[in-house]
Amino acid sequence: MYLSRVIPHRLEILIRLFLLGENGLVMASCYTCKQRKVRCEGAPQVPGNDSHPEPRCVNCQRLGFQCRWQVPTAGEDYTPPPKRRRAPGRRRVVSSHNDHELPQQQLTVTRDVQQSDAGPATLMTGSDSTTGQLLDETLDLFGGFLFGTDFGSVSGGFDLNSAGEGLDFVPLPAVDNDMLQDLNLSTPLPDWPAPSSADALSKTPPYSGSDTVDPDGSHSSIDPNNRRLIQHYLDVMKGYAKVDDHAKDDNNLFISAFTRSLYFPPLFHAILAFSASHLAMEDESYANQANAFVTLAGRSFETFRCAETCQVDGLLSALFVRVKTVHMVGGSVDTFLSLISAAADIVSTKRDELALDTEPSLTRRIIVRLAILDARATYHRIGRGQLVHLIQEIPAFSALFARHLAWSTSTGALFNLLRADILRMKVAELDTRLHAQMENEFVTETPIRTIEVKSLYDDIEYEIDQWNGQMGQRMDISTDIVPGDEVLSSLAFGYNIVLSALHSALVYLYSVYPLPSFNLERSISVVLQCQLRISNDPSRATSPSSILPSSIFMVGLMTNDPVHRHWILQLLKTGERWGVYVKKARQLLEAMLREPGQPDIRDMMDRVTGRFVI
């Protein structure tokens, strides 16, 4: 767990020094860091500076150690800090003493990337058993971030960081932690491992855009053209760390994602495409660069997809970032669904392995995040839920689809958020069936009966009761009063996003098939209260987790209170900086409210914004 907190911050400093070029300064080392045998991440202030009476380096400040820049005098009361523990992965490699030792590759950050004459290498080095160890070590970086649990606890298969309905952190392919431990600024960036399939490489033509790619399509470089994108990624994503299920000053997984992406071109290009697309929302001059990296991400993905030795978690990570990019820019639904289809194809080929996977794995975690996006794409009869239907057949994901789940077997808000999205997906399927019956001149399937709709209402209500019961044992949920400027704990934040999703499912169902016995105003009120609590959280004011677009869109459409509608439209207006899809949601809602009667959402999309995923 030490690595998961310290390494990403070290990486950020090293990457920022690299981005400064030759003007970066070399920092002195404090006595405390020397004793701990770690690289010091700060320089002492000038003695006598009243503004900084007690200089502390970044390491000591973060870990709470006494930071000293002078050797303690004899007889002085001084408690030495604990020395740094070695990484578990390194202990295993050192203790094994086997003859098949991994090559010691080093992750480096330099001003110019050197290209070597080394031949193609496989994506993962070493035997299958070694690869499994590396995956386990990588999972250690993400395990334990449960709602209301300590970092040392054992995580389950769906115990993931929650990001509400905003931008999730990027799942990462397996990379040896030893590579991250030996950072320096003097050695060249290692060549990206190339796929072993020569046929796959020959099918991918070279690209001559803003990024540099060798003729085989397997190499790239960090140059002035994309250095701005990397800097933007580090600056912007640092705010997204607040949506993670841990303290805001702890490990930033977005920065870790960038570092690991240096070893996998599809993910690296996807990250650059995301960054350029984000910049293009305010500066159109980045649009061409964004399109170029989107193309490059697709080409490198197809190249590595054909490689026999390529790891599934790396491919799915790259797909996840690309899907999030399409979602953020309110892009083509066809592109969105084609990426989901590619993920489903990869999962389908590994179905047997996943069926036997009883332990948490990075692949399963990435699949869950992709499934959330796939489920949301089904709203308003847009998507098909291809990936969700596929994982329903895999035993490892069976708990997600259990009608009445034994709640003792599930932990973490993201697991329950996906269950809520699956329920909203069932409402969307009901919506699709109803429209098909109304459009067909002859009845071609069994008509939808009220008892079936009532059963879906009951299922959602049951899920709400179970969620309230589970969380009521861990926090106070008895009050409806929304305090101002209160920083929500990760536990409280997770409770609100799941509760909002469940009640918005009821609102969505009422818009599709209203029942007189259902209390619509109650669910509208709960969604608004959840959004208000999150909006009042100052720690989330600068992150996309400050808004729940899909939930408040449905409430804005169904409420009759003009004050509520005005507030929701203002929230969506403020949240447009998080993505074009938020802007389109506001424009769509305004158009729907101007239209007399109750127009169809998908039809209004076709007329106003084009189809997109809210």
UniProtKB/TrEMBL annotation:
CDD domains: GAL4. The keyword Lipid biosynthesis does not apply. It holds the Pfam family Zn_clus. It comes from Cordyceps militaris (Caterpillar fungus). InterPro entries: Zn2-C6_fun-type_DNA-bd_sf, Zn2Cys6_DnaBD. Residues 1-28 form the signal peptide. It comes from the Eukaryota. SUPFAM superfamilies: Zn2/Cys6 DNA-binding domain. This is Zn(2)-C6 fungal-type DNA-binding domain. Residues 74-100, 186-223 are annotated as: Disordered. Keywords: DNA-binding, Nucleus, Signal. GO terms for molecular function: DNA binding; DNA-binding transcription factor activity, RNA polymerase II-specific; zinc ion binding. Residues 29-69 form the Zn(2)-C6 fungal-type domain. Residues 82-94 have a biased composition (Basic residues). The keyword DNA-binding applies. PANTHER family: TRANSCRIPTIONAL ACTIVATOR PROTEIN UGA3, ZN(II)2CYS6 TRANSCRIPTION FACTOR (EUROFUNG).
